[in-house]
Amino acid sequence: MAANSTTAMDIITGALRNINALEAGETPSAADAADALMVLNDLIEAWSIDKLMIFSSVENILTFTPGQYQYTVGNPVNTSTPSATPSAARSPVPSSAAHPLSRA
Predict the structure, then answer these.
(1) In a domain, 37, yes or no
(2) 15 Cβ contact list (under 8 Å, min separation 6)
(3) pLDDT for 69-93, tens place per residue?
């Protein structure tokens, strides 16, 4: 089942139809859509400043494994203990990969 999603253009087109700026079946011009997107972004920013929330829902289809009774749902969390090595000494790139084209 495909998830229904509403785009900014859907909101803009609906709003312009609501104020009778567009007829049914019409689409806004590029300039009108750009102006309306700016207004929509300003509105969302104002809601954010006022600590109003914009909710969304996401449908997740999960496959369950027979015999497995625990599942982790959500973002993965790093549960390893922090290293005692200072962060400056730790490099995400191994020293051998720092200059892959150089010859030793």
Answers:
(1) yes
(2) 36, 40
(3) 888 877 666 656 555 544 444 444 4
